[in-house]
Amino acid sequence: MRVNRRVVIQFTVYAFHIKLRVDANCLTMRTLKVCAAAASAMSKKPAAQPTLHKVIMVGSGGVGKSALTLQFMYDEFVEDYEPTKADSYRKKVVLDGEEVQIDILDTAGQEDYAAIRDNYFRSGEGFLCVFSITEPESFDATQEFREQILRVKNDENIPFLLVGNKSDLGDKRRVPLDACRERAHAWQVPYVETSAKTRDNVDKVFFDLMREIRSRKSDDSRAANGNVRDKVKRRKIKCAIL
Amino acid sequence: MGPPPVVTGISPKEGPPGTRVTIRGEFLGISVTDLIGLKICGCDCLLSAEWKSKNKIVARSGPCKGRGDIIVTTKSGGEGTSTVQFRGYHESVGPMKESAVWVEEAAPPSLPWGRRPMSPTAYTPPDPLGLSTEGDDYKFPEEELHELFPDGSGKLSDENFQPGWYLLEHHSNTSYEDLKAGMVFLQRKVEGQKEGQLSFLKANTGAVMDQLDRLVLLKNMYEEDQRKNGREPLPNLQSAIEESISLADSLFSEILSRKENADKTREALSLLTRHKFLFQLPSSIDKNIKKKEYDLVVNDYTRAKNLFGNTDVKLFQKILAEIDKKIEDLKENLFNRMKTMPINVQEQTKYIRLLISLNWDGDAAWTAILSRKDYLMNLMNKVKEHFKKKEEQESNEKGRRKLRDWECEGSWSATRADWCGAACGALASELHALWPLARRYFAGELAGQPTLPQRHTDLKEMIIAMVESFSEQMRGCLICTGASGGAGAGGAAGVAADVLRARLVANLRHLRDAYDSLLKLDLPSQPLSIVEKVIFDYRVHGMTVFLQRAHKRVKGLSEKETWKIEEFSDYGAITNLPHLLESYVNDALSAIHKCVLRSGRRESPLLAAGGEPLAALQRHTQHTLLAFVAVLRDLTMHHEDQDFNNTSLSVALDQRLEESAVETVSAGRSWQQRLLIAGANAQYTRRRTLANILTPFENYEMPKPLQAIQATKDELSALEDNIAEMYLEHKGDPLVGTIEPSMYMGRHHTDADTLLDDARPYVYEIINNLIAVHAEVDSVCGAASSRYVRDICETVCEELARLAACAPARSRAAAFQARLEYSLLRLAVADHLTRKAENYLMEALAGLPPLDNEEDKKRLDNIIQGFKKRMELQLTSLNCNMETV
Predict the structure, then answer these.
(1) pLDDT, tens digit, for every residue of B838-862?
(2) What gap in Å lies between CA B40 and CA B59, rounded to an integer?
(3) Which fold has domain A51-221?
């Protein structure tokens, strides 16, 4: 009985804690990240560790997220299909003359893993939302992914590319190009058609995304340095959304 | 070294232990064998790693927890780095989940709010807030929780339960309203539990009633039982059980005891079979000893010792004691065998090894060495005794008849040769056995204490003692020194030369064989040098014997002189003496060369410069040669007394001629001739033979005894002078002596102042005498004759000059006569005149008054011409020698 009572007391105390935490959730995340970035920028030499851009591959199962990743990373095309759980890749690339590191999180497309996606999305800085142009269902699913990302990241302008994969299978195309473009336009994101098999536009999508992330980051740091009010305002907005 | 591996990709990036992960990157090895290390989160996963390509490895994660690098190590690139990380976690395993993870089967602790403990399979974490509807859509990252609550845990049942953890883990997405509702729910539940018994009973009416029923049922059953069996049923039960036990015992005791007996018997039997080896060991040892298979005995014994050495069983101990006794006997036996000589070394080594393996206390090998040494010493002595005895026997047998012969044979007898051979053989064979034994002993192969510092010196002394005793013996046997030296040297003459040589060679061969075998043994140099010294001494001895023999033979030459002229050399007629000398010396040298000069293996050269043998050789050569000179001298002097009168008698020419004719007819030669022959011999020896003697020295590569030769030459030339003088003395003196009487004899007749047409007879006498001398000398000495004739001429001229000075010619006629005579004489001996003789003649002529008228001169010429014509034959004979005739 005594244990129970203690539990109750602690619960009451933590209820407030949680309230506060949830209240400040998004703000904390952002501030923490900014602070961490600033701290790392200050404490470590930037030359020693190139800037890291975190890219997350999303999309339905079997659309070719892993194929795109592997093609980009290792110039190889994997024919046999093996569902991914969550793969991590990281390498140095030269982006417009600057050496940066790209970290690719290749996530699972299958619905079984939908529950753990939130976790992953949170750490992403840019997203490649992939669907197969031979598979309308995967195109439809992009809508859900988009919503989930926006929900988790809480940011309309998160770097995001809509990628229509398997462009080499033009004869089997079942998602009209116009529909794709239309949706991209609606979301105000770029639309690129790729082929992991022929490596068509593979580098382009990754580099475009990294450029967006980079410009986004510089915006953020400017905002963090200059505009305090803006920060406050943003916090208020987020509270409202929650 | 290539670039280090870099891991840039991991699929998947997290998982429980055993997850199949695909590792991608660069330079992950150039072949399967190049990959030598793989660590995921610090866990070694090389075992499960499958190398696919240089960009890809497939492996299974280990039992790691938390985030960590993936480190690939290759032979070509070394240890690598990783840009991505793997996170290992341990899954909590639910009842419906398949898992390879071991699940603790202990029951979970009872939960405070559960009414009854749930079975482990049915256990699901309850939801204390009653908010289960939400589900686990969103998971709060575990590591962040760990960061927030370092000491806490999210499990309700844990001691360090942290409500914050629990809420964040399960309800991080729950809205505040819901949480409030959950709070109310929880409070209500707690309140409900507090409400008391009544509510509890209310809630559980069914169960309580059920329990009541059960209790009543139990009570009824108990009462029934008591009624049936009384209050104390236990004593009855016990007695009944005891009774049944005793009955069962009585029933089975017999069978049991029988079984027990059978078991014992079986056990004893099995023991016997099991330890058959031990029980049969004493008899088998006896058998094997009888069969001399000691190895088997040793093996068995060692085995028995190992198996039963520290047994506590009395029986075994007894048997072991018996065996020990047998083994002790065997050891004693073996030891004695090992000590007993003669025995070959293999067998001895075998015994030593056996003794060692039987733990003999003593130093078996050393004893063996000692016994071998004693044996060798004894053997040597025995050989010595044996041959001494044999010698004595032989000398006794022969003694009466041939005592001298025996003495003479001395160290050259066949017995001694046998003795030498036997001793050499004994030494060689025994050392052959002893030395390897010792070597193995010191190499530590034969146990004992070879490291004892004393041992090495002991052994060395032993060997030296052995070799020394051998050398002593051989010296005694072969080289008779001291008192018997003379006998040895004398003995050499008693034995035929070829026998001597054969014996010497045989003995030397024995010695050398022994020495060779010792050399092969690789003995230390000291004993070797002792043996070598013996050999060397023996060789010197042999050489000396040969030289002494030659000396002796040369000494005996005087008896061999037959005065038979062998040939006419450039130096006159010689007998065979020089040739005999040459051949004797040659014989000796060739014998030396054949027998002893050649050095055997690792022997010092016999005639090393400055060595004693070389000096001996020189000395002996000199002795020999001088002996020859002495022989020649003796030969010339020997007949002196005998012949002196003979010659002194021959004052007159006629007498002498007669006598010499008589002597020439007789078998022997006249003393003068012998003298001349001896002179020729001496000269020939000096000029020719000595040079010839040097040739064998050169041929046999011995140093030339130049000193000896020189001494001999000196001696010989002295002898020659001596001989010449003597000859002159005995020949010239009478001749000269006759001149004066003959001259005055003639003067009586020619005193008148008559016309002279011829010289006085004394001139003819002189000429005739000279011819006779010349003939004699020339017949013997040939070309060398001129010397004698010249000397005589000189004497004659001197005498003439003296006479002329004493009695100067008073008259003209006398002067003329004297001039005529001197001129004729001068003419006659013109070829033999020396400067001195010429001077004498000139002196005599000068004393005469010169011829003053032509007539006289003419007459003188006429007479000289007439003289030449008349005396042509005589003059020719005087002025020529044998060869031209």
Answers:
(1) 777 777 777 776 666 777 777 777 7
(2) 9
(3) Rossmann fold (3.40.50)
